[in-house]
Every structure is written in C-alpha cells, then in structure tokens.
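User: Okay, second chain of the day. Same drill as before: sequence in, structure tokens out.
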Amino acid sequence: MAELAPHPVGHPLRGGVAGFGTDGIRGRVGSQVSPALALQVGFWCGQVLPAGAPVLIGMDSRSSGPMLVAALTAGLTAAGREVWTLGLCPTPAIPGAIRRLGAAGGLMVSASHNPPHDNGIKVFGASGAKLSRGQQRAIEAGLQGVDGGPGASGGFSGTGVVLDRHDLLADYQRALLASVRGRRLEGCRIVLDLCWGSATACGEAVFRALGAELTVLHGQPDGERINVGCGSTHLEPLRQAVIEKGAAMGFAFDGDADRMLAVDGQGRVVDGDQILYLWGSSLLAEGQLPANRIVATVMSNLGFERAWQAKGGVLERTAVGDQYVHQAMEQMGAGLGGEQSGHILSARHGMSGDGLLTALQVATLLHRSGQSLADWMDNSFQPYPQTLVNVTVPDRQRRQQWQQCEPLRQAVEAAEAAMEGRGRVLVRASGTEPLLRVMVEAAEQPLVDHWASQLAAEAERHLNAA
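Assistant: Same drill. Structure tokens below.
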C-alpha cells in the first residue's frame, strides 16, 4: 500500500503539490487536503494504473469523504477510467476486492486514526499492494505539470463511467467469515468499539454471524466523532465496558479499521506484540508458520523477542511502518508480521493489515481452546519496561543525521554497553514531526529511567546547540 503525502509530511514538489511519502495525505481538509488536489491525484492515478479494468474507491465515515471521493472520481473519469465506488468500508476491503476482481487498483479516502477534521488518500496498485516506485514517480511528474508522463500529457482523455458497487462489501464480509474456517463464538461475551468509523460498515454483523454475545460501542458511522475519545487510540471506554459486562475480551479499531488493539477481561491492554505472539504460537503449534518466522518492527518489545526465541521462533525486525513489514514478509516468505500499534499482516489472508480479520482470528482461536484472553495473558510473555522520550529538534538535518553527532552516538554506545544485553536503545527521527524519538528498553525499570533521561538530555544538549 502506498500513501500520498503532502508537504511537510511527504516530499514537497513544485508549487507545494504533494508527492508520495510514508504517512499519506493526512492533514486539515481544505488546506493540506483539498478537492483540487484530489482531482489531480485521481486524474494521474487514472493515467498510471493499468488500463482495461476498473478503479475502486472506498471511504471511512468522515464528513469530508463524499466530497473527496467526488473529486477523485472526477479526475479518474476525466482520464477515461471506469470507477466503482464502494462507499463506507474498511480499508482492507479495497485491496481484497482488487485481487478478487482483477481491478486496476484502488483508492481509500481516510486519515486513519486522525481527528475528524483531517482526511487523506491511500493508493493501491493492481496487486492490492503499494504502487511501484516507477508508478509513484509518474504520478508525481503529473502533479508537477511535467509533460510526457506514461500514457498521457495531462489533457482530457475522454469520459469515464461511474458505478455504485456497495454490494462488494458483502464479498468482504464473506471473506472475513471464511477466514475463521468454521470456528464459532456461541456463548462468548465480546465488546466491540467501532470508533464511529469504517468498522461500523460490517463489524457487528460478522461477529453476530458467528454467534458472539455482543456489546457495541460507537457503532454508527459518524464523521464528526470518528476517533474522538474512542477506538484503538483511546481504550478507556472499551476497558470499562469489558469489566462492567464481564466480557471475555474487547476489540477496538481505528478510523479505517486496518488495525486493532484488544483488552482482556481484567482490563489489560493487549497490543500488537501480544497478538503476534498469540496468533504466531497457534500457527507454530499447527506447523503452519514458515521457518517459525514472525516479522515485526524495531519498536516491538524485547520481552516478546526473547519469549518467541525461547519457543524456537525467529523474529525479524524492520523499520517502523507496515509497508516495511509487508516488504520483508514477501522477501522472506514469512507467514505473519505486524506492528506493536496493532497492524497485523497474514500471508494466508492477503497481506493486508485488517483489524476485523485479526479480531476474528484472536477471538475464535481462544474460544476454540476454551481460554479467555485473560487466561492467555496470564501465561504470555512479560514485556520489558519501555520508555519513549520525544526530544524536539527543529533542525531537520541534525535530526535526520543524529548518528553524525559524536557525543550522542558515544552516549548510546555507553548505554548499550552498560546494560550488557539486558536492554536496548533505539534512536530515530520522526518522519512527520520535528522530533527525535529516544526509546530505552530493559529488564529493570530503574535502568530504563536512567538511560532514557540521560540520552534525551544528551540529544537536547548537542543537537540543539547554537
């Protein structure tokens, strides 16, 4: 999956027009994200995506969604393309439909976990994965007004066709139900926080179809309240409901339902590392995990890594971002991967981050085993204490090239040597904010606190020096 990103999030092009980045168009509607920009993006996607097949468009529940879908559709039809609109749907419904139908590609209008006043555009190629770098460059060239892009010079290309294909959501629901292979949820009390967003399109329906006893929070689409005090970034409402209802587990989704975090019956948060460990352990026991390998990012907890290795598993780490996890899984032939934040990718299920699919897998695997999520957590790994300190570093070059700061680099090496394998340090520049992120993880909390404070102070002292 590729996401378009405007200045300053992505790569600024001529006149401030957006280029491809890692976090997409994700900002205020009307300034960073405008109908004019969406029109151009639609047109140039229409020029670059393979001809002869439709282009799919979906959206989350944001109030600005229909406006941006209309602009994208206008651009695509001006490029002579046939457009199928799915309406409200989870992001993973788009790549799934692309693969099932042989579509040319698809676009999802969503700003994920951002507040209601933001929106964005995600672009998928004909494989359901991110566009190739060549396709990205071609679209960027078109957005810059450079002639000679593939297939067009930027002029009017004819009249396209628009079809309403809301019926395709039913195919996605059937695929979700098929993914659990006949496992059921009768008698299982579950709380769902649907976040007023994309998960409201079918989340309740698929869990009820499996017989779950449901309590649903924020269960209607509401573009003015999506992500506000709810969902995977605000877990307290879910935690309270799970405890009050005596539920076995609860699941919270982000605005476009491509990721999920859980809460057990005791109110404990179950993050992406715990989900990977649970699902991975099941696949390992069944002999269904190639090379016993899980792909995670540099942010995954060291306690998870040590516990997985003790099971005979292999943990590969990538840079932060589900696109890097996806690439590594393809290169290594891995069956499972994901991020601590709740993006989980399964090779068996199409390699798309899918919060609803992940929740169904976790719930049905546990229910079949006769365990609650709390039972499983009691016997899971113990996470290492972890502290993340954000240091504001306005100078982009100093921030991005912090390794060239000799005193800071030596301080990091000293910290790692002092912990003697009982912990680790991760320092990285934020891709979207003027921040240097300093993460320290160790077996003992005092060790974490000491080195996190010291390294943050060193970064502040040397990277912000006059």
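The mean pLDDT is 91.

User: Thanks, on to the next one.
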